Amino acid sequence: MVSLFGDSSSSRVAIVYNGVSATNKEALHFLRNEAARADSQYTFDTINAKNGLNRGDYKALIVMNTGFETGVDPVLSGFIQSLDDKSGVILLTFIKGSSEIEVNSYPASPSTEGVDAVSASSLWKHKGSPFKSNKDIKAMHGEWLDLVLQYIDKQS
User: Fold this and answer.
1) What percentage of the chain has pLDDT greater than the value 70?
2) Range with the poorest average pLDDT among 39-43, 64-68, 97-101, 109-113
3) What is the tens place of the pLDDT at every residue in 56-101?
4) Sheet holding 116-121, edge to edge
5) CA-to-CA distance for 89 and 87, rounded, in angstroms?
6) What is the pLDDT of residue 113?
7) Measuring CA to CA, how many Å separate 42 from each of 36, 93, 95?
8) Residue 155 CB coordination number (10 Å)
9) Mean of the per-residue pLDDT values for the chain?
10) In sequence order, what are the residues at sequence separation of 6 or more whose Cβ sits closer than 8 angstroms to the Cβ of residue 46?
11) Is the pLDDT of residue 4 over 60?
């Protein structure tokens, strides 16, 4: 078992993912750009789950789950289950093939691997999607980012 976070006053946040996919690249790019644009106090370190995590002093840990229509990537599920302390862990799920423009937030429960969770569509471009415009898609992604930042803020 792995023990978790040290310094709740830290501004560092770890983002754990499994594999390099188009959705992962888009989400990381969006998160970093929008957080910088909003003058976020947080810095984000990206970590492939298969490479392990150098714990350091992270305020929170975002586990980015992509590539599934339902459920959690088994590698990421195992990673979350290996944590002694799940406080400060946020499961961010991009639902494969979803055409919903809504963002959902869930409290920790067995279906969310025992951690707080946020879910949204994995779509990033209007072309060929049911979304009316790229503006709608950007607004949806902005909403999940706001929820994730609110969860991180609660970790003080």
Assistant:
1) 79
2) 97-101
3) 678 889 998 887 777 889 999 999 988 888 888 999 888 777 767 6
4) 43-48, 12-17, 60-68, 89-95, 116-121, 104-106
5) 5
6) 86
7) 9, 20, 25
8) 18
9) 79
10) 14, 15, 17, 28
11) no
Distance CA 74, CA 61 (A): 17
Tell me the two tokens of residue 43: 């810095």
Q: Burial level of 119, CB count in 10 A (0-12/13-18/19+)? A: buried
Q: Token pair of 114, please? A: 């025992």
Residue indicated by tokens 């809504």: 102
Cβ 35 vs Cβ 78: under 8 Å: no
Q: Read off the amino acid at residue 60.
A: A
Contacts for 127 with CB less than 8 Å, ≥ 6 apart = none
Tokens of 110: 């067995």
**Tokens standing for 34?**
């929008």
Instruction: Give kind and range of the element (H or E) at residue 17.
Output: strand 12-17
Contact at 8 Å (CB) between 94 and 122? yes
